[in-house]
Amino acid sequence: RIQGNNVDLAYSGPNPNNWPIKELMENLVQSGGLGNIARANFWRACRWVGIPTLRRGLDFDPYTELPTETRIRIRMNSAYQNRQLADAPNGGIPQFQFNTSNIATRTYESAVGSSALETIRVVPNPYYGFSSYEASQLDNIVKITNLPETCTINIFSTSGTLIRQLRKDNSLTYVEWDLKNTYNVPIASGVYIIHVDAGELGEKVVKWFGALRPVDLNSF
Fold first, then answer.
1. Cα 134 to the chain's mean position, in Å?
2. What b/e string do you get for 141-179 counting C-beta neighbours within 10 Å, with b at 16 or more?
3. Number of domains in the chain
4. Secondary element (H or E) of residue 116
């Protein structure tokens, strides 16, 4: 029902003039009184609106601290009563069904962990002298993301020389690389091979290109 009238929302072809809610959509985009009334009627017709919020004291970072139980409250704009809809389930009484089984976190499954290695990335890639992770002109930072809890990251030049080794053993899903080698010397621009060893889960190799900016001597 739209504005008190039963409307057949069946597809009526590609011609917009045949669309069942063409007039309503035209009213929604108008300015002034008619548009305001149409928008008010539109939102009043919404059955329910959900806004997920965190309880006080809970943070989304790191992801391992996400709750495993969720409570959903639905506040209806109209009374909970029979809508007299033809062939409606539950006798026309509003009915809501939720299923999160396909998106629930799966833990301690080697197959899932191994397949997740394919999502490992270096960002930004390519790196053109700047990233949003840098706080000043002295910083050079990229992140290796979607990492397992424990892994070893080896960074090689295209000639096979080991440039840097990073070890991770925490619940964060990323590590930062300051674009320096083992001796704390900034690397040269070029292509690098990043090898992630996740033990029993497997390995992942990522190619990364960086074009580093010259040192800003005015910063000293």
1. 21
2. ebbbebbbeebebebeeeeeeebbebebeeeebbbebeb
3. 2
4. helix 110-116
User: What's 193's DSSP letter?
Assistant: E
Within this chain, do residues 87 and 155 fall inside the same structural domain, yes or no?
no
- Degrees, nearest 5: CA angle 40-43-46: 150
> What would the DSSP string read from start to end of 158-182?
TTS-EEEEEEEESS-SEEEE-SB-T
Residue numbers of the domain that contains 138:
115-219
- How many whole angstroms from its chain centre is CA 70? 19
Structure tokens at 54: 């965190």
Both tokens assigned to 94: 């509003």
**Is this prediction's pTM over 0.70?**
no
| 3-class state of residue 194 by DSSP | strand
Residue 97 counted as domain residue: no
pLDDT tens, residue by residue, 174-219: 899 989 999 988 899 999 999 999 888 888 999 999 988 877 666 5
Tokens of 139: 């910083």
Interatomic CA distance for residues 120 and 207, integer angstroms: 11
Query: Which of 183, 110, 95, 179 has its CA nearest to residue 148?
Result: 110
Which amino acid type is present at position 128?
Y
* Three-state DSSP state, 144: strand
For residues 86 and 122, membership in a common domain is answered with no
- Does 9 reside within a domain? no
The rounded distance, in Å, linking the Cα atoms of 28 and 49 is 19
Whether the ω angle into residue 20 lies within 30 degrees of 0, i.e. cis, is no
Continuous H helices in 22-70: 22-28, 33-44
**How many beta carbons lie within 10 A of that of residue 20, not counting itself?**
13
